[in-house]
Design goal:
This protein is of the alpha/beta class. It folds into 2 domains: 93 residues, Translation factors (Elongation Factor Tu (Ef-tu), domain 3); 125 residues, 3-Layer(aba) Sandwich (Rossmann fold). It is built from 5 helices and 12 strands. A 6-stranded antiparallel beta sheet has the order 4-3-6-1-2-5. A 6-stranded parallel beta sheet has the order 10-9-8-7-11-12, sandwiched between helices. The chain binds flavin-adenine dinucleotide.
């Protein structure tokens, strides 16, 4: 059963830069000493009355005493500024865990995971969680970012695809991503990549990112014959 959300405190242990605007923060739980959550859930950080920002837990529930958050700080608002300022030793107060964008292991339909930019965070937690639990299930991930360096966790997914034959990874970057970085992979839009690469027998979709993309992805799968509720989503913006 999903854990009930509660007020929590944690301490920042380490921060890392995954890309110029993508940062990770490792937090050590203080109260409670370990957070019980499902892969894909998020925490709510307060910034004054009725002003909160949500950050998804990028790590997996296996070690609840430490959680990792991952943020794209490009939006530049209060949440981004807070995340970018985090440093080892800082105390963080939040409410969590929250949200129902979680993988249902009892559902035997073939899943396709679709991530737009930082929408990869809940999907990363779900996929690594399945791997840690040795759940051998054919699954496809289509991840889109504006440039190769913004494909967060790309190396993890490449390694996962090598290790688990049933897992197929399709990274895609924008057509105009530039040639500064060597990228021999696919370029183009996320929607085109979904049309091309989503398996025709995919029956349950997990999509996270911006609202416009979620809507288009849903329309596409409904046109393929899926029920609307077979397209599960998390809207980040
Ligand atoms: C359930 C949920 C989980 C989330 N998990 C994460 C997470 O794990 N990591 C993360 O970085 N963000 C996550 N977000 C988004 C996050 O809560 C903030 O909205 C984001 O950090 C921007 O906050 P801000 O105060 O800097 O900018 P704001 O001033 O709040 O936003 C400025 C504008 O940017 C838009 N925006 C917000 N995020 C993005 C984005 N990534 N790309 C493009 N436009 C954007 C907003 O809709 C708004 O129009 C999540 C949101 C939700 C609802």
């Amino acid at each position: 059963m999903a854990a009930k959300a509660r007020d929590c405190r944690a301490r920042v242990v380490l921060t890392r830069r995954l890309a110029p605007s993508i940062l990770e923060a490792d937090l050590s739980m203080v109260d409670p000493p370990a957070l019980s959550f499902d892969a894909g859930q998020w925490i709510s950080v307060p910034f004054g009355p009725k002003n909160v920002r949500a950050y998804t837990i990028a790590s997996t529930p296996r070690i609840g005493a430490a959680i990792t958050l991952c943020a794209d700080v490009a939006p530049g608002g209060v949440g981004s500024q807070w995340f970018a300022s985090l440093a080892a030793g800082d105390e963080v107060s939040f409410k969590g865990p929250l949200g129902g964008f979680v993988f249902d292991r009892a559902d035997e339909r073939r899943p396709v995971f679709i991530a737009e930019e930082i929408g990869i965070v809940p999907i990363r937690s779900m996929l690594i969680d399945l791997d840690e639990a040795a759940v051998a299930r054919p699954a496809t991930l289509i991840q889109w970012a504006p440039s190769p360096e913004n494909l967060a966790y790309h190396d993890d997914f490449v390694a996962l695809a090598r290790r688990r034959p049933g897992f197929v990874y399709h990274p895609v970057v924008a057509e105009n991503a530039g040639d500064a970085q060597a990228w021999g992979g696919t370029r183009g839009s996320l929607l085109d990549a979904v049309v091309r690469s989503a398996p025709t027998d995919a029956r349950i979709v997990y999509v996270a990112g911006g609202e416009a993309t979620i809507k288009r992805v849903r329309e596409m799968f409904v046109a393929r014959g899926l029920e609307r509720k077979a397209v599960r989503w998390e809207r980040f913006w």
